[in-house]
Amino acid sequence: MSVWLVRAGSSGEKSSHFREDGCISIGYNLTDDLTDKATWPDIRASLRKSNGSARRPQIDQVWQFLWTIQEGDLILTPASSGFTEVMVGRVSEGRPWFNSHAAINGDHGHRRKVEWATSLLELTNQVATKYRLWSVRRTVYRIAESDLDFWMSVVASEPGGSVLLPPS
């Protein structure tokens, strides 16, 4: 199991959409369905078509969202720009899907199902800073394995959080 930071827009503006729809999503103005394309060249070509360029960090993040995040992984999503409240969820289906209607209308098209905890996790500035979450500007970021035990204990201590964790 991995723990991922998946941003809901630059200041958490899509967090209510994530919660209401039980998903996470990624944008980059992509209008091509990449859920069946497992190659970097396909992702790069689609990013170039949609944005005029394709940088390695963008390709990495789309790849991770589509193919590296797995069913059962924990998701942390900032619910605000200050990163004091975080939504915690678990990927509940292994396969991503593409919502073409959303993509055509300028919303995030590539999505993954997530079961969200009922309450928000409140982080102190000290905790967020210690675990480098403030400085991460990526949309999709894998939390270091060395921090996995910390995040699992934080999630387990939250009301209803233990149901998101794998059985021991």
Task: Please characterize this protein's 3D structure.
The chain has 168 residues and is α+β, with helices and mostly antiparallel strands. Helices cover 32% and strands 20% of the residues. α2 crosses α3 (56-68). It starts with a strand and ends in an 11-residue tail after the last helix. The mean pLDDT is 82.
Query: What pattern of helices and strands is seen along the backbone?
Result: EHEHHEEEHEEHEH
CATH class, named: Alpha Beta
Number of strands: 8
Remind me, CATH topology? ph1033 like fold
Overall geometry: globular
Low-confidence stretches: none
Approximate strand percentage = 15-25%
CATH architecture: Roll
Number of helix segments?
A: 6
Rounded mean pLDDT score: 82
> Residue share in helices?
25-40%
Query: Largest sheet at a glance?
Result: 8 strands, mixed
Q: What is the CA-atom radius of gyration, in angstroms?
A: 15 Å
Distance between the termini: 12 Å
Secondary-structure-based class equals alpha+beta
**What's the number of domains?**
1
Give me the secondary-structure topology.
Blueprint: E1 3-6, H1 15-21, E2 23-26, H2 40-51, H3 56-68, E3 74-78, E4 85-91, E5 97-98, H4 100-104, E6 110-116, E7 121-122, H5 125-130, E8 140-142, H6 148-157
Parallel strand pairs: 1-3
Antiparallel strand pairs: 1-8, 2-6, 3-4, 4-6, 4-7, 5-6
Helix pairs in contact: 2-3
Distinctive features:
single chain, 168 residues, ph1033 like fold, 8-stranded mixed beta sheet, alpha+beta
